[in-house]
Amino acid sequence: PVAALRVAGPCPDSLRPRVGPGGAAAIVRGGHTLTGRALAPLDTSAVRRFAVECGLRDFAITATGSPALADHELEAAAVVADAVPGARITLSYEFGRPGLREREAETIRNAALGPAAEELADEVTRQWPGLPVYFARSGEGLVSAHYFHRYPLACRLGWTTSRDRGLTALTPGHEQGTPLLPTVEQDTPGLGRSGLDGGPGVPEPEVAAAYGAVLAWPRAGVERIVRARGKAELDRALQDARDEALTRVVSAGAAPGSARVVVTGVNPLSYLPDGLYRLHVVAEGATP
């Protein structure tokens, strides 16, 4: 169960935040446009009242315009943390998507996964004390147990992508994304003949996934919407996003000296005032 808090203007009931059984949802006044203009002051009294009365510890906070200016999400989070000691809070600006409802849905899913992710990460860490623990993320890369605690949604497809990467590496002629059935011919536990001598079999999915995870490096990204009135402003905003991505990948388990930016994307936003850009930066690094 998740307490979903939207900071925005009023809307029809059909467009309110969607939460599962036992969840709670509220809309409070506040938010910004994507150009950074405040729609209304944040109603901190309503935030506190909802936090206290909902009876939940897992919060998903989404404010309009937060990929461009996250002030109201951060302010609401501070109110919730003060009102509910031990609250676990997910903020939508950390997911970066410009669409309010899409971003809100991801924020709610991340918050809902939080308790199970914390339990899983703690259990794995207890089983291998003193060793760095990593989880495979969707798409590419790994994240630390600490990062997994906070962003479990980043790993929702980790097994699938690790399996595909492992199959690509272990199976001659296999292209990533091509589904293959596991072989029943094995001459080491779990590994098909093709993994050893190029025969007709393919690796068991579990082995392929494990091997694919081993091949990955810690990886983290940042998506932001910025307003820049010229190249100098855009370059500054892009450097800020790069710095944040490098900080995130260290949090995701990369050795600090190994962190580097591997993807940089700058796209102007259509149908909006000139000077609005969506920035996408990805960093990766080696494990210690």
Quote the average pLDDT.
89
| SS element count, helices | 8
The dominant shape is globular
SSE succession: EEHEHEHEEHHEEHHEHEE
Strand content: 15-25%
What gap, in angstroms, lies between the N and C termini? 36 Å
The helical percent reads 25-40%
Q: Which strands sit side by side, in order, in the main sheet?
A: 2-1-3-4
Largest sheet: 4 strands, parallel
The count of strands amounts to 11
Multimeric state: single chain
Give the uncertain stretches in residue-range form.
179-187, 189-199
* Secondary-structure class: alpha/beta
Radius of gyration: 22 Å
Offer a few descriptive terms.
about 290 residues; alpha/beta; 4-stranded parallel β-sheet; 3-stranded antiparallel β-sheet; 8 helices; globular
Please characterize this protein's 3D structure.
The protein is α/β, with parallel strands linked by helices and about 290 residues long. About 35% of the residues lie in helices and about 20% in strands. It has helices spanning about 45-55, 70-85, 100-125, 145-150, 160-170, 195, 205-215, 230-250, and strands spanning about 5, 25-30, 60-65, 90, 135, 140-145, 185-190, 190, 220-225, 260-270, 275-285. The strands form four sheets. A four-stranded parallel β-sheet has the order 2-1-3-4. The chain has a three-stranded antiparallel β-sheet with strand order 9-11-10, with helices on one face. Strands 5-6 form a two-stranded antiparallel ribbon. A hairpin with a 7-residue loop joins β10 and β11. α1 crosses α2 (about 70-85) and α5 (about 160-170) packs across α7. Residues about 180-185 and about 190-200 have low confidence and may be disordered.
